[in-house]
C-alpha cells in the first residue's frame, strides 16, 4: 500500500522556507501571508509527526530529516513542472532565460545570437544583464547559487570569474586576455603621434573601464607586465561601463585596455584595432554555469550550451 502524502501546498511551503531560511521571504515568493506559511509548516510537521524547522536565536535551522528530504523534494517539484509543461505542449515552443554581464551580452553574445535563432527557431530567449548578479566572488563562493537560479528564474548564466560555483554544473567557455584597443586613426601615419610602440602611449589619453567586477584589467598591471615606463597609469578618462569606454575608443578619444574577446566584432568591422600585440592573460575566464537539477527546459538549455561552446571554439572568438 502506498504511503499517504501530505498536501502539495504544505510541501511547497516547506521547500520555499528551507531554501530561503525565512518565513517572510517564502511568503513573498508564494504570494501568501507569513501566517499562511507558518500554518502550512505546522500542519506538515503534525502530519509527519516530527519537527522540520527549529528556531535558534531568531534564526531558522533545518533538522536532519529536513536536510535529507530537501534534495529529492526539489527534484520532485522539477519533475512535476516538467509533466505539466508536457501536458501543455510547451515543448513545441520553448523559452529559456540567460543571464550574462551586460558587457559580455552586448559585445559578445548578442552579435552572435542570430545564428542560434536560425538553428533553433523553436526556442525563444530572454537575455538578462541584471547588474546585481555580477561576480564579486563572495556570494558565489558560499554555495547559494541554487537559490539564485530559482529566485531570478534563470536557466543559464555566463559568468566571469574563477569558476568557483558550488553546487552547479560549470563549463569553461572562454579563457581571455586583455590588450590595448584604439581607433585605426590613432595608428595612421596621418596622426601627429601614431601608435607604433608602448612608449607612444605617453602622447595619448588612456581610457579606463572601472566597471565593478572582479578581475577587470588595469593599465597599471599591463604597463608593469611589459616594462613600460613614463606613462601615468591613473591619468585619462574613466568610465563605469566597458561599453562606454569602447565607444570612446571607437571615437578616437584614446586607448582602452580591455578584454579582446569583447572587442572582436568591432575589430572585424574595422572600428577598433590592436596597436601592438602585447597581451595580458587574465586569471579569470568566462564560465557557463547551470544548476545541478534538470528543469523543464532542459532540451533548450542543452541546445544553447552546445551552441555557446561551438561559438567559443571558432577562431577569433
From TrEMBL:
Among the Pfam families in the record, one is HTH_1
Q: Please, one GO biological process term? A: DNA-templated transcription
Q: Does the keyword Repressor apply?
A: no
State the Gene Ontology terms under molecular function: DNA-binding transcription factor activity; sequence-specific DNA binding
Which controlled-vocabulary keywords does the entry list? DNA-binding, Transcription, Transcription regulation
Q: Which residues form the HTH lysR-type domain?
A: 6-63
Instruction: Determine if Transcription is one of this entry's keywords.
Output: yes
**Which protein family is it in?**
Belongs to the LysR transcriptional regulatory family.
- Please report the name of this protein according to its UniProt entry: Transcriptional regulator GcvA
This chain is encoded by the gene named gcvA
Amino acid at each position: 500500500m502506498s504511503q499517504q502524502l501530505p498536501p502539495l501546498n504544505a510541501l511547497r511551503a516547506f521547500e520555499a522556507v528551507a531554501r530561503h531560511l525565512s518565513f517572510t521571504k517564502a511568503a513573498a515568493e508564494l504570494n501568501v501571508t507569513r501566517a499562511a506559511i507558518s500554518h502550512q509548516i505546522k500542519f506538515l510537521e503534525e502530519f509527519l509527526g516530527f519537527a522540520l524547522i527549529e528556531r535558534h536565536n531568531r534564526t531558522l535551522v533545518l533538522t536532519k530529516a529536513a536536510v535529507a528530504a530537501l534534495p529529492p523534494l526539489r527534484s520532485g517539484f522539477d519533475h512535476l513542472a516538467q509533466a505539466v509543461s508536457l501536458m501543455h505542449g510547451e515543448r513545441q515552443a520553448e523559452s529559456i532565460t540567460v543571464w550574462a554581464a551586460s558587457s559580455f551580452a552586448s559585445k559578445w553574445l548578442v552579435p552572435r545570437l542570430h545564428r542560434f535563432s536560425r538553428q533553433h527557431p523553436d526556442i525563444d530567449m530572454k537575455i538578462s544583464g541584471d547588474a546585481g548578479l555580477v561576480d564579486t566572488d563572495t556570494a558565489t563562493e558560499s554555495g547559494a547559487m541554487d537559490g539564485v537560479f530559482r529566485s531570478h528564474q534563470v536557466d543559464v548564466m555566463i559568468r566571469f570569474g574563477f569558476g568557483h560555483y558550488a553546487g552547479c554544473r560549470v563549463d569553461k567557455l572562454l579563457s581571455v586576455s586583455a590588450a590595448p584597443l584604439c581607433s585605426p586613426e590613432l595608428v595612421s601615419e596621418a596622426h601627429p603621434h601614431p601608435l607604433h610602440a608602448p612608449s607612444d602611449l605617453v602622447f595619448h589619453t588612456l581610457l579606463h573601464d572601472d566597471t565593478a567586477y572582479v578581475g577587470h584589467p588595469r593599465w597599471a598591471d599591463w604597463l608593469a607586465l611589459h616594462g613600460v615606463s613614463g606613462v601615468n597609469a591613473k591619468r585619462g578618462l574613466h568610465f563605469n561601463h566597458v561599453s562606454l569606454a569602447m565607444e570612446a575608443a571607437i571615437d578616437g578619444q584614446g586607448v582602452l585596455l580591455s578584454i579582446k574577446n569583447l572587442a572582436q566584432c568591432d575589430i572585424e568591422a574595422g572600428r577598433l584595432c590592436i596597436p601592438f600585440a602585447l597581451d595580458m592573460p587574465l586569471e579569470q575566464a568566462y564560465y557557463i554555469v547551470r544548476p545541478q537539477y534538470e528543469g523543464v527546459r532542459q532540451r533548450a538549455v542543452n541546445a544553447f550550451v552546445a551552441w555557446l561552446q561551438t561559438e567559443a571554439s571558432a577562431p577569433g572568438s
